[in-house]
Amino acid sequence: MPEAKRALVVGATGIVGQSLAGMLAREGWTTFGLSRSGSVELPGVTSIRADLLDPEGLATALADVRPDFVAITAWMRQDSEAENIRVNSATVRNLLAALEPAGSVKHVALMTGLKHYLGPFEAYGKAVMAETPFHESEPRLDYPNFYYAQEDELFASAEKNGFSWSSHRSHTVFGFAVGNAMNMALTLSVYATICKELGRPMVFPGSEMQWNALTDVTDADLMSEQMIWAATHPEGRNEPFNTANGDVFRWRWLWPQLAEYFGLEWEGFAGEPRTLESQMVGMEETWRAIAARYSLAEPQLDRLASWWHSDADLGRTIEVLTDMTKSREAGFLGFRNTVSSLFEKIERYRDARILP
Protein backbone atom coordinates (compact mmCIF):
# COMPACT_ATOMS: atom_id res chain seq x y z
CA MET A 1 0.00 0.00 0.00
CA PRO A 2 2.47 2.67 -1.16
CA GLU A 3 -0.10 5.45 -0.84
CA ALA A 4 -0.50 4.96 2.92
CA LYS A 5 1.34 7.76 4.64
CA ARG A 6 -0.45 8.34 7.95
CA ALA A 7 0.73 6.25 10.87
CA LEU A 8 -0.25 5.86 14.51
CA VAL A 9 2.27 4.31 16.91
CA VAL A 10 0.68 3.12 20.15
CA GLY A 11 3.15 3.01 23.01
CA ALA A 12 5.37 5.64 21.43
CA THR A 13 7.43 6.18 24.59
CA GLY A 14 8.40 2.50 24.68
CA ILE A 15 11.58 0.88 23.48
CA VAL A 16 10.16 -0.15 20.08
CA GLY A 17 7.57 2.62 19.89
CA GLN A 18 10.17 5.38 20.05
CA SER A 19 12.26 3.70 17.38
CA LEU A 20 9.30 3.09 15.08
CA ALA A 21 7.74 6.55 15.41
CA GLY A 22 11.05 8.24 14.68
CA MET A 23 11.70 5.96 11.71
CA LEU A 24 8.28 6.58 10.19
CA ALA A 25 8.66 10.34 10.52
CA ARG A 26 12.07 10.25 8.87
CA GLU A 27 10.62 8.20 6.01
CA GLY A 28 7.98 10.83 5.31
CA TRP A 29 4.93 9.46 7.09
CA THR A 30 2.60 11.81 8.92
CA THR A 31 3.21 10.21 12.28
CA PHE A 32 1.27 10.28 15.54
CA GLY A 33 2.62 8.83 18.77
CA LEU A 34 0.13 7.78 21.46
CA SER A 35 1.08 7.35 25.11
CA ARG A 36 -0.50 7.77 28.53
CA SER A 37 1.86 10.63 29.32
CA GLY A 38 1.62 12.38 25.96
CA SER A 39 5.33 13.05 26.31
CA VAL A 40 6.62 11.83 22.95
CA GLU A 41 9.37 14.22 21.92
CA LEU A 42 10.56 13.08 18.52
CA PRO A 43 11.10 15.27 15.44
CA GLY A 44 8.13 15.05 13.10
CA VAL A 45 5.95 13.06 15.53
CA THR A 46 2.69 14.53 16.86
CA SER A 47 2.17 13.43 20.46
CA ILE A 48 -1.25 12.21 21.58
CA ARG A 49 -2.13 11.72 25.22
CA ALA A 50 -4.70 9.01 25.87
CA ASP A 51 -5.42 6.07 28.17
CA LEU A 52 -6.06 2.83 26.32
CA LEU A 53 -8.41 1.76 29.11
CA ASP A 54 -10.63 4.85 28.64
CA PRO A 55 -12.73 4.15 25.52
CA GLU A 56 -14.45 7.54 25.41
CA GLY A 57 -11.29 9.53 25.95
CA LEU A 58 -9.47 7.39 23.42
CA ALA A 59 -12.14 7.96 20.78
CA THR A 60 -11.96 11.70 21.32
CA ALA A 61 -8.16 11.80 21.17
CA LEU A 62 -8.05 9.78 17.93
CA ALA A 63 -11.04 11.33 16.12
CA ASP A 64 -8.95 13.29 13.62
CA VAL A 65 -5.93 11.04 13.28
CA ARG A 66 -7.27 8.79 10.50
CA PRO A 67 -4.21 6.52 10.21
CA ASP A 68 -3.55 4.10 7.38
CA PHE A 69 -1.03 2.14 9.42
CA VAL A 70 -1.36 1.39 13.14
CA ALA A 71 1.42 -0.20 15.20
CA ILE A 72 0.62 -1.49 18.69
CA THR A 73 3.78 -1.70 20.78
CA ALA A 74 2.31 -1.13 24.26
CA TRP A 75 1.36 -3.47 27.09
CA MET A 76 0.54 -3.04 30.76
CA ARG A 77 2.12 -5.47 33.20
CA GLN A 78 -0.29 -6.92 35.78
CA ASP A 79 0.12 -9.19 38.80
CA SER A 80 -1.35 -12.31 37.15
CA GLU A 81 -1.86 -13.65 33.66
CA ALA A 82 -5.63 -13.45 34.13
CA GLU A 83 -5.26 -9.72 34.75
CA ASN A 84 -2.77 -9.40 31.90
CA ILE A 85 -5.38 -10.92 29.61
CA ARG A 86 -8.23 -8.75 30.88
CA VAL A 87 -6.30 -5.49 30.68
CA ASN A 88 -4.19 -6.00 27.57
CA SER A 89 -6.99 -7.44 25.43
CA ALA A 90 -9.08 -4.40 26.42
CA THR A 91 -6.35 -2.02 25.25
CA VAL A 92 -6.37 -3.53 21.75
CA ARG A 93 -10.17 -3.75 21.64
CA ASN A 94 -10.62 -0.15 22.79
CA LEU A 95 -8.02 1.18 20.38
CA LEU A 96 -9.45 -0.51 17.30
CA ALA A 97 -12.99 0.46 18.27
CA ALA A 98 -11.93 4.08 18.57
CA LEU A 99 -10.43 4.00 15.08
CA GLU A 100 -13.36 2.15 13.50
CA PRO A 101 -15.67 5.11 12.71
CA ALA A 102 -13.12 6.81 10.43
CA GLY A 103 -12.62 3.64 8.39
CA SER A 104 -9.10 4.69 7.45
CA VAL A 105 -7.05 1.77 8.77
CA LYS A 106 -5.43 -0.45 6.16
CA HIS A 107 -2.93 -2.39 8.27
CA VAL A 108 -2.34 -3.04 11.97
CA ALA A 109 0.95 -4.45 13.28
CA LEU A 110 0.95 -5.95 16.77
CA MET A 111 4.15 -6.48 18.73
CA THR A 112 4.15 -9.56 20.93
CA GLY A 113 7.06 -11.78 21.91
CA LEU A 114 8.46 -15.24 22.48
CA LYS A 115 6.15 -15.94 25.40
CA HIS A 116 3.85 -16.87 22.52
CA TYR A 117 5.88 -20.11 22.45
CA LEU A 118 7.04 -20.26 26.07
CA GLY A 119 3.90 -19.36 27.96
CA PRO A 120 3.61 -16.46 30.41
CA PHE A 121 6.14 -15.95 33.20
CA GLU A 122 3.94 -17.74 35.73
CA ALA A 123 3.58 -20.85 33.52
CA TYR A 124 7.05 -21.61 32.19
CA GLY A 125 7.01 -24.92 34.02
CA LYS A 126 3.42 -25.78 33.11
CA ALA A 127 3.08 -25.04 29.41
CA VAL A 128 4.38 -27.48 26.80
CA MET A 129 7.15 -25.67 24.96
CA ALA A 130 7.84 -25.87 21.26
CA GLU A 131 11.09 -27.23 19.91
CA THR A 132 13.78 -24.65 19.28
CA PRO A 133 14.32 -22.79 17.11
CA PHE A 134 10.76 -21.53 17.40
CA HIS A 135 8.72 -21.44 14.17
CA GLU A 136 5.63 -19.34 13.54
CA SER A 137 3.69 -22.47 12.54
CA GLU A 138 3.73 -23.84 16.10
CA PRO A 139 0.23 -24.17 17.58
CA ARG A 140 -0.74 -22.07 20.55
CA LEU A 141 0.00 -23.51 23.97
CA ASP A 142 -2.89 -24.88 25.97
CA TYR A 143 -2.49 -22.18 28.60
CA PRO A 144 -3.95 -18.67 28.96
CA ASN A 145 -1.70 -16.02 27.40
CA PHE A 146 -2.37 -12.32 26.94
CA TYR A 147 -0.57 -12.39 23.57
CA TYR A 148 -3.23 -14.78 22.28
CA ALA A 149 -5.99 -12.56 23.67
CA GLN A 150 -4.51 -9.51 21.96
CA GLU A 151 -4.19 -11.37 18.67
CA ASP A 152 -7.81 -12.53 18.88
CA GLU A 153 -8.98 -8.92 19.32
CA LEU A 154 -6.88 -7.94 16.31
CA PHE A 155 -8.19 -10.79 14.15
CA ALA A 156 -11.82 -10.01 14.99
CA SER A 157 -11.48 -6.32 14.17
CA ALA A 158 -9.55 -7.03 10.97
CA GLU A 159 -12.29 -9.36 9.76
CA LYS A 160 -15.00 -6.88 10.67
CA ASN A 161 -13.32 -3.79 9.24
CA GLY A 162 -11.43 -5.19 6.28
CA PHE A 163 -7.85 -4.25 7.17
CA SER A 164 -4.81 -6.53 7.11
CA TRP A 165 -2.70 -7.41 10.13
CA SER A 166 0.69 -8.71 11.14
CA SER A 167 2.05 -9.87 14.49
CA HIS A 168 5.72 -9.55 15.37
CA ARG A 169 7.27 -11.86 17.95
CA SER A 170 10.42 -10.35 19.40
CA HIS A 171 12.97 -11.87 21.72
CA THR A 172 14.76 -9.71 24.33
CA VAL A 173 14.86 -6.21 22.84
CA PHE A 174 17.99 -4.06 22.69
CA GLY A 175 17.07 -0.45 22.00
CA PHE A 176 17.44 3.22 22.80
CA ALA A 177 14.52 4.65 24.72
CA VAL A 178 14.45 7.50 27.20
CA GLY A 179 12.07 6.95 30.12
CA ASN A 180 11.58 3.24 29.52
CA ALA A 181 13.38 0.88 31.88
CA MET A 182 12.35 -2.47 30.36
CA ASN A 183 15.46 -2.61 28.23
CA MET A 184 18.28 -5.09 28.77
CA ALA A 185 20.86 -2.97 26.93
CA LEU A 186 20.35 -0.06 29.32
CA THR A 187 19.80 -2.23 32.40
CA LEU A 188 23.10 -4.07 31.89
CA SER A 189 24.88 -0.79 31.13
CA VAL A 190 23.62 0.78 34.34
CA TYR A 191 24.66 -2.36 36.22
CA ALA A 192 28.14 -2.18 34.68
CA THR A 193 28.44 1.51 35.56
CA ILE A 194 27.58 0.79 39.21
CA CYS A 195 30.04 -2.13 39.29
CA LYS A 196 32.76 0.20 38.03
CA GLU A 197 31.85 2.82 40.62
CA LEU A 198 32.13 0.27 43.42
CA GLY A 199 35.17 -1.58 42.09
CA ARG A 200 33.23 -4.80 41.67
CA PRO A 201 33.51 -7.39 38.89
CA MET A 202 30.62 -7.65 36.48
CA VAL A 203 28.89 -10.87 37.60
CA PHE A 204 26.62 -12.77 35.21
CA PRO A 205 23.23 -12.83 36.97
CA GLY A 206 21.49 -15.62 35.12
CA SER A 207 21.18 -19.40 34.89
CA GLU A 208 23.65 -22.05 33.77
CA MET A 209 21.46 -22.69 30.73
CA GLN A 210 21.54 -19.07 29.60
CA TRP A 211 25.28 -18.85 30.20
CA ASN A 212 26.03 -21.85 28.00
CA ALA A 213 23.18 -22.20 25.48
CA LEU A 214 22.75 -20.54 22.12
CA THR A 215 20.31 -17.64 22.12
CA ASP A 216 19.41 -14.51 20.15
CA VAL A 217 17.98 -11.03 20.71
CA THR A 218 16.02 -8.37 18.81
CA ASP A 219 17.22 -4.90 17.88
CA ALA A 220 14.41 -2.36 18.32
CA ASP A 221 15.26 -0.69 15.01
CA LEU A 222 15.08 -4.04 13.22
CA MET A 223 11.63 -4.62 14.70
CA SER A 224 10.57 -1.20 13.42
CA GLU A 225 11.86 -1.99 9.94
CA GLN A 226 9.95 -5.28 9.88
CA MET A 227 6.70 -3.62 10.98
CA ILE A 228 6.97 -1.00 8.23
CA TRP A 229 7.81 -3.71 5.69
CA ALA A 230 4.75 -5.75 6.72
CA ALA A 231 2.52 -2.69 6.37
CA THR A 232 3.79 -1.86 2.89
CA HIS A 233 4.24 -5.27 1.24
CA PRO A 234 1.52 -7.81 0.44
CA GLU A 235 3.79 -10.64 1.62
CA GLY A 236 3.65 -9.17 5.11
CA ARG A 237 -0.12 -9.13 5.44
CA ASN A 238 -2.14 -11.44 7.66
CA GLU A 239 0.90 -13.31 8.94
CA PRO A 240 2.83 -13.71 12.19
CA PHE A 241 6.58 -13.18 12.03
CA ASN A 242 9.42 -13.88 14.40
CA THR A 243 11.76 -10.93 14.79
CA ALA A 244 15.35 -11.57 15.84
CA ASN A 245 18.67 -10.16 14.69
CA GLY A 246 19.56 -13.20 12.62
CA ASP A 247 22.75 -14.13 14.42
CA VAL A 248 23.11 -16.33 17.51
CA PHE A 249 25.47 -16.20 20.48
CA ARG A 250 26.19 -17.60 23.94
CA TRP A 251 26.28 -15.28 26.93
CA ARG A 252 29.59 -16.89 27.99
CA TRP A 253 30.95 -15.37 24.74
CA LEU A 254 29.21 -11.98 24.92
CA TRP A 255 29.55 -11.27 28.66
CA PRO A 256 33.37 -10.89 28.62
CA GLN A 257 33.08 -8.52 25.65
CA LEU A 258 30.52 -6.38 27.47
CA ALA A 259 32.70 -6.29 30.59
CA GLU A 260 35.74 -5.30 28.54
CA TYR A 261 33.72 -2.52 26.89
CA PHE A 262 33.19 -1.00 30.34
CA GLY A 263 36.72 -1.75 31.53
CA LEU A 264 35.62 -4.34 34.09
CA GLU A 265 36.66 -7.72 35.36
CA TRP A 266 33.91 -10.31 35.02
CA GLU A 267 32.57 -13.51 36.54
CA GLY A 268 30.43 -16.10 34.78
CA PHE A 269 27.88 -18.54 36.10
CA ALA A 270 29.10 -20.14 39.33
CA GLY A 271 26.73 -22.68 40.79
CA GLU A 272 23.52 -20.64 40.94
CA PRO A 273 22.07 -17.42 39.56
CA ARG A 274 23.28 -14.22 41.23
CA THR A 275 20.41 -12.00 40.23
CA LEU A 276 20.58 -8.31 39.43
CA GLU A 277 17.80 -7.69 41.95
CA SER A 278 19.92 -9.17 44.73
CA GLN A 279 23.15 -7.52 43.60
CA MET A 280 21.62 -4.08 43.19
CA VAL A 281 19.65 -3.76 46.44
CA GLY A 282 20.06 -0.26 47.88
CA MET A 283 21.95 1.20 44.92
CA GLU A 284 19.67 4.21 44.44
CA GLU A 285 22.01 6.59 46.29
CA THR A 286 25.02 5.21 44.44
CA TRP A 287 23.36 6.00 41.12
CA ARG A 288 22.33 9.47 42.29
CA ALA A 289 25.95 10.16 43.15
CA ILE A 290 27.10 8.95 39.73
CA ALA A 291 24.45 11.06 38.01
CA ALA A 292 25.48 14.16 39.98
CA ARG A 293 29.20 13.70 39.28
CA TYR A 294 28.73 13.25 35.54
CA SER A 295 25.74 15.61 35.13
CA LEU A 296 23.56 12.80 33.82
CA ALA A 297 20.00 13.36 32.65
CA GLU A 298 18.30 10.86 34.98
CA PRO A 299 19.22 10.44 38.66
CA GLN A 300 16.43 7.94 39.42
CA LEU A 301 17.67 4.39 39.09
CA ASP A 302 14.22 2.82 38.68
CA ARG A 303 13.62 4.89 35.54
CA LEU A 304 16.65 3.37 33.86
CA ALA A 305 17.05 -0.21 35.01
CA SER A 306 14.51 -3.02 35.21
CA TRP A 307 16.31 -5.67 37.24
CA TRP A 308 13.36 -8.09 37.35
CA HIS A 309 12.91 -8.03 33.58
CA SER A 310 16.53 -8.81 32.73
CA ASP A 311 16.66 -11.38 35.54
CA ALA A 312 13.65 -13.13 34.00
CA ASP A 313 15.30 -13.31 30.58
CA LEU A 314 18.75 -14.28 31.80
CA GLY A 315 17.42 -16.69 34.41
CA ARG A 316 15.55 -19.01 32.06
CA THR A 317 16.34 -22.69 32.43
CA ILE A 318 15.26 -23.49 28.87
CA GLU A 319 16.84 -22.81 25.50
CA VAL A 320 15.34 -19.82 23.69
CA LEU A 321 16.11 -19.44 20.00
CA THR A 322 14.04 -18.27 17.03
CA ASP A 323 13.84 -19.12 13.35
CA MET A 324 13.75 -16.25 10.82
CA THR A 325 13.22 -18.32 7.67
CA LYS A 326 9.59 -17.33 7.16
CA SER A 327 10.38 -13.63 7.29
CA ARG A 328 13.29 -14.01 4.88
CA GLU A 329 11.30 -16.07 2.38
CA ALA A 330 8.59 -13.42 2.46
CA GLY A 331 11.14 -10.78 1.48
CA PHE A 332 12.23 -9.12 4.72
CA LEU A 333 16.00 -9.51 4.75
CA GLY A 334 16.93 -7.11 7.54
CA PHE A 335 19.45 -8.24 10.16
CA ARG A 336 21.70 -6.91 12.90
CA ASN A 337 25.07 -7.87 14.32
CA THR A 338 24.17 -8.29 18.00
CA VAL A 339 27.50 -7.12 19.40
CA SER A 340 27.48 -4.03 17.20
CA SER A 341 23.82 -3.43 18.06
CA LEU A 342 24.52 -3.55 21.79
CA PHE A 343 27.52 -1.24 21.68
CA GLU A 344 25.75 1.20 19.35
CA LYS A 345 22.89 1.50 21.84
CA ILE A 346 25.33 2.11 24.71
CA GLU A 347 27.01 4.91 22.78
CA ARG A 348 23.63 6.51 22.09
CA TYR A 349 22.90 6.47 25.81
CA ARG A 350 26.23 8.11 26.46
CA ASP A 351 25.57 10.77 23.85
CA ALA A 352 22.20 11.47 25.50
CA ARG A 353 23.87 11.80 28.94
CA ILE A 354 21.98 8.81 30.26
CA LEU A 355 25.25 6.97 30.88
CA PRO A 356 28.61 8.54 31.77
Give a structural overview.
- The structure is a single chain.
- By secondary structure, this protein is α/β, with parallel strands linked by helices.
- It folds into two domains: 6-170, NAD(P)-binding Rossmann-like Domain (Rossmann fold), CATH 3.40.50; 179-216 and 248-321 and 336-351, no CATH class.
- Helices cover 41% and strands 14% of the residues.
- It has 14 helices and 13 strands.
What labels describe this entry?
single chain, 356 residues, alpha/beta, Rossmann fold, seven-stranded parallel beta sheet, two-stranded parallel sheet, 14 helices
Report the end-to-end length measured between terminal Cα atoms. 44 Å
CATH superfamily assignment of the largest domain? NAD(P)-binding Rossmann-like Domain
CATH top-level class of the largest domain? Alpha Beta
Which fold name corresponds to the CATH topology of the largest domain?
A: Rossmann fold
Q: Give the neighbour order of strands across the main sheet.
A: 3-2-1-4-5-6-11
User: What fraction of residues sit in β-strands?
Assistant: 5-15%
Number of domains: 2
Give me the number of helical elements.
Answer: 14
For the biggest sheet, the summary is:
7 strands, parallel
Oligomer: single chain
Structural class: alpha/beta
Radius of gyration: 20 Å
CATH architecture of the largest domain: 3-Layer(aba) Sandwich
Q: Shape from CA axes?
A: globular
Low-confidence stretches: none
Short description:
By secondary structure, this protein is α/β, with parallel strands linked by helices. It has 14 helices and 13 strands. Helix 1 links the parallel strand 1 (6-10) and strand 2.
